[in-house]
Amino acid sequence: MPADRLNELMVEAQKEAFGDSLDEYHPHFWASKLHFHITNVPFYNFPYTFGYMFSLGIYAKSIALQAGTSFEEKYIALLKDTASMTVEDLAKKHLGVDLTQKSILGRSHSFGCSRC
Predict the structure, then answer these.
(1) Nearest residue to 7 via CA among 36, 29, 23
(2) How many whole angstroms separate alpha carbon 54 and alpha carbon 47?
(3) Origin, by domain of life (predicted)?
(4) CA–CA separation, 106 vs 10, rounded Å?
């Protein structure tokens, strides 16, 4: 992709994310972030992506529990368990998702979020 196009995309993303709150947009911002370009080493981006996916699961659970069940209590229980459980066990117990199954990869709707 040509640098000019990357500059355009960067400005579009900044406008969408920040609206008019920036004094100026930075079209070359993409060039200063090495991890944007290292696609064969996913470790840097993985925690952010996984965290986002996990939060979608929590959000989906909150929607599913609208009728009669206190989501707040369930959410506090999940937060308490983060100190003593693996993420696999957390997902299984609190979201009903088995993260060890390959079928979960790349499918946010597996967390039960039809909007995602």
Answers:
(1) 29
(2) 10
(3) Bacteria
(4) 25
Banded model confidence at residue 105, pLDDT cuts 50, 70, 90: low
- Distances from the Cα of 3 to the Cα of 16, 18, 63, 88, angstroms: 20, 22, 42, 40
Neighbour count for residue 83 (Cβ, 10 Å): 6
| pLDDT score at 103 | 66
Q: Convert the pLDDT of each residue in 4-44 to its tens digit.
A: 999 999 999 999 999 999 999 999 999 998 877 777 776 77
- The amino acid at residue 50 is F
Residue ranges of E strands in 1-116:
none
Q: What is the DSSP letter of 100?
A: T
